[in-house]
Amino acid sequence: MAGADASSGRVLVVEDDAAIGGDLVAALAGAGYEVRWAQSGYAARGHIAELAPELVLLDLGLPDEDGIDLCQDLREQLPDLLLVVVTARSDESDAVRALDAGADDFVTKPFRTEELLARLRAHLRRAPAQDSDTLRLGRLTVDSRARRAWLDETELALRPKELELLEVLASAAGTAVRREQLMDQVWDENWSGSTKTLDVHVASLRRKLADAGDRWDRIATLRGFGYRYELD
Predict the structure, then answer these.
(1) Which of 23, 85, 118, 199 could connect to 190 by a Cys-Cys bridge, CB 3.0–4.6 Å?
(2) What residues form DSSP beta bridges with 87?
(3) Taking 60 as the threshold, does the pLDDT of residue 14 lie above it?
């Protein structure tokens, strides 16, 4: 998606709350998006086939199915689809489940509409990195053009934001990186909402690195500052 405003983006809102859904549809349409609204998982699947959206805003509390299940199904069917979960569930376990199911981002209600729109613009305009260089750091290899990463011979099953986060941290290995810098580089410099999504992504990234055989503390938390990718 080229351009800062992403005004031709196709967005599907999956939200059963009439007030929230109506406000989101109005805000998105006013910002120039082609938008559809589904109030159930069943309706969402029909709109997916008709609209072929680039981005889905997905509530987890749907009347006919768990939004996590729908998220997982959409990710399997449409690997390049941008999936942003927007939900009243604020527990970290819910965020982890959503990210594991394939969500690219997790936004909790209540939220400021302008901030959410800024977040969506950042998602839609972010293209795969054009740098053909491959980052190699110890056992880790990150191919930014192919959008893939490996630990030794094991490919890491990373979501888009996890890959970008790993690339930023590994590129600055041994150096402390501020939370604000990570949000600016991986998400959007205009986003001023909660940075909890950063912590959830770091936790998921740690788990995937450890599952592939790396040390659990490869990414160190620097309380009150940010994170550091540890060198051996």
Answers:
(1) 118
(2) 108
(3) yes
Tell me if residue 213 falls in helix, strand or coil.
coil
Q: Compute the C-alpha angle 98/147/202, nearest 5°.
A: 40
How far CA 32 is from CA of 1, 27, 189, in Å, comes to 14, 9, 21
Token pair, residue 232, equals 């051996």
What's the token pair of residue 48? 């997916």
Domains annotated for the chain, with CATH where assigned, are 10-125 (3.40.50.2300), 134-229 (1.10.10.10)
pTM above 0.90? no
First to last CA, the chain: 39
Contact 12, 57 (CB under 8 A): yes
Phi/psi region, residue 32 (left: phi>0; alpha: psi -120 to 50; beta: rest), is: left
3-state helix, strand, coil in the chain (%, to 5): 40, 20, 40
Backbone angles phi, psi at 72, to 5 degrees: -65, -40
Distances (CA, A) of 145 to 127, 133, 162, 182, 200: 10, 8, 15, 20, 25
CA dist 114 and 108 (Å) reads 14
Helices (H) and strands (E) in the chain, counts: 8, 12
Q: Tokens 């939200």 map to which residue? A: 15
Nearest to 37 by CA among 50, 26, 21: 21
Secondary structure of residue 142 in the 3-state scheme:
strand
Q: In the chain, what percentage of residues exceed pLDDT 70?
A: 89
Q: Are 10 and 52 in contact (CB under 8 A)?
A: yes
